[in-house]
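Issue: ligand-bound run for zinc ion - logging full I/O for the record.

Environment: standard queue, default settings, no custom constraints.

Inputs:
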Amino acid sequence: MANGTDTRTRGAEAGTARLSEHCELAKRPEYADLHRDCRRLEDHHMPAEPRIVLTPRCGCSCHGGAR
Ligand SMILES: [Zn+2]
Ligand SMILES: [Zn+2]
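Outputs:
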């Protein structure tokens, strides 16, 4: 019997930006400086399995696409 586990979209909720620890904290005014410490600018993949993202790129708007 299948137990209903759906692996297709696990952990990929639209509209929910994945923030690094730094930027997550930096959402608080008193920690705003931490945006500058975030270096999670690209996805980190598992070496043996490049299609698996270990640590997704930080989705914080402080890295924004606008330049
Ligand atoms: Zn940020
Ligand atoms: Zn960030």
